[in-house]
Amino acid sequence: xxxxxxxxxxxxxxxxxxxxxxxxxxxxxxxxxxxxxxxxxxxxxxxxxxxxxxxxxxxxxxxxxxxxxxxxxxxxxxxxxxxxxxxxxxxxxxxxxxxxxxxxxxxxxxxxxxxxxxxxxxxxxxxxxxxxxxxxxxxxxxxxxxxxxxxxxxxxxxxxxxxxxxxxxxxxxxxxxxxxxxxxxxxxxxxxxxxxxxxxxxxxxxxxxxxxxxxxxxxxxxxxxxxxxxxxxxxxxxxxxxxxxxxxxxxxxxxxxxxxxxxxxxxx
Length: 268
Prior knowledge:
Strand 4 (75-80), helix 3 and strand 5 form a beta-alpha-beta unit.
């Protein structure tokens, strides 16, 4: 696409988790086309569109720490794209989508350049975060190696996709809470929340959510594609967005606006 010639990431070194498939793979491709040096992270070896590849399991604290040690200094951006669908075991979903993500991000802060940008891939599934405050507060100090105990103690299971929904709710909340944490160094964090995206795991969501997902599909004109999401992540990692902090950007074909209109009596 023409916008890829903009080179808005030229000279930047950016870590992309989940770089082997779906949105992560497309994000790595777009970043490379925009001039970035991409360091890819995934459990599946794939070297497309990355300068260097690091194999890592984000459910394991020691592996995350080893990854942090292996990555170089001078990181200008971190795109936390890796995620598991709601058909995976609940503790694994929470580990990869939330607790492992946090441990990796916090571990990399000392290796980031001043002015660096962090983008977390959340989801339309996190829309209901205000109704989950108690569990979100309880999760704040949980380490990735304590995920199974947290899920058990708070009854977060796969029923109705709850493990996935909670992981994204807490991720949006953490991003907002962290809006100014590294402001003295100019490091910012934001989220992008896609609606349903046509990736290899779309079927997992349809299987888990059933009629709920079918109803959303009838309302929307089409599912998203990875190429709808990657440029938004690139924009947030560019130098054009230094005053966007702690913000969640929906990228869902208007679905979150539809929900808000329904909630507040603004529908036609």
